[in-house]
Amino acid sequence: MSDSDDSSPRPAKRPKISKKDFPEKDGALWLDDGNIVLISAQGVGFRVHLSVLSMNVVGFRDMFGAVDHSDEKEKYTTRTLKDSTQDLRHFLHALYTRTYFYPGKPTHYDTLESMLRMSTKYHAKQLRHELIEHLIMIYPSEMMVLEKYKDLRIPSDDTHSLRAITMARECDVPMILPTAFYWASTISPAQLIRLQPKLKSKDLAEILVGREKIAQAVYKAMWCWLSETRHGCKGDRKCRARRLSVLRDTNQFQGAPPSFFLNKILPETPDEESSDSESDEEDEEGKFCEHCLQQWYTPKKMRKDYQDIWDSLPSYFTLPSWDDLDDMKY
Q: What is the number of structural domains in the chain?
């Protein structure tokens, strides 16, 4: 019988394996001794150590269990995740490199968002705790440190507060919401409308309504001070004119009165007003006398007016009190 008569089946050809079947390797986080490869939604692979993941991330520990080496030659197993390459990269860098992030280190909001999203999703408790501490530095509950860490707002444009609101809503960080909403209220309504795609409509409404509530509280505080009888006033007519000009300036200043805590409604110090009066005698009309100016700058009085408004800040945006928010910090 000729070979052509042999009817036995031919062995199946080994399927060709395309390089596309393998994940694209991340340049920095492909560790040769890693025993697990995490593949992002975009197909980028990160070869890392299950022991490191299990030590820091409860979610990964529960998800992977014991590693079964699906590729005996390479000695690692693979897992495909639904997370973006950016989120996974920032998250793993934070776990592997201690200096990659720590509270108080200037860090771009893109990176913060990725790390906070992943640490919340996979229960990386220590990293999440540190991220919340960092955000509280930027959006504090204490009025006196409102701008202490302003250099941590990266980028520093007006949208930082809107991004903070989105982060807080998505990742359950309510502690930063009152201050983030306050900063958002200092953005002009017209600009807020233009930026609406960055916000949920409910949050946009809260900002606009809260802005009006702050305005009412500010004007109430201002009127109380303006209407008080000042015993010892040395220039009643001049002081009265100056007080009215303060209200006028507050009303005309863009961003005020929501910017009540940030802007100088009066000179920085009583001496500044006094020196102005001495150097500009023609503009004596509308200057405070030294007695009234000192009364305004009495720390107990001024701080109380500011503090009362600040203490009520959460209520202006339909949020729990500062104390209740503190209980929900982590």
A: 3
Shared domain for 166 and 231, answered yes or no, is: no
Structure pTM? 0.79
Q: Which residues contact 320 (CB under 8 A, 6 or more apart)?
A: 174, 314, 328
**Spatial contact of 135 and 112, defined as CB atoms under 8 Å apart:** yes
**Is position 305 within any domain?**
yes
* Tokens describing residue 254: 């863009």
Residues 6 or more apart in contact with residue 293 via CB below 8 angstroms: 266, 270, 273, 274
* Domain boundary, last residue among 203, 219, 241: 203
Residues in the chain: 330
| CA-closest candidate to residue 311, choices 194, 209, 221 | 221
Q: Tell how far CA 328 is from the center of its chain.
A: 17
- Residues 6+ away with beta carbon under 8 Å from 182: 161, 210, 214, 258, 261, 313
CA gyration radius for the chain? 30
Q: What are 301-325's pLDDT values in tens digits?
A: 666 777 889 999 999 999 999 999 9
Mean pLDDT, all residues of the chain: 81
Q: CB within 8 A of 280, min separation 6: which ones?
A: none
- The domain of 228 spans 211-316
| Two tokens, residue 218 | 């500010």
Three-point CA angle 231, 245, 189, nearest 5°? 130
Burial class of residue 121 (count of CB atoms within 10 Å of its CB; 0-12, 13-18, 19+) = middle
Same domain, 154 and 194: yes
* Contact present, 123 and 129 (Cβ < 8 Å): no
Angle 56-171-185 from CA coordinates, rounded to 5°? 140
The beta-strand segments (E) located in the chain are 24-30, 36-39, 44-48, 77-80
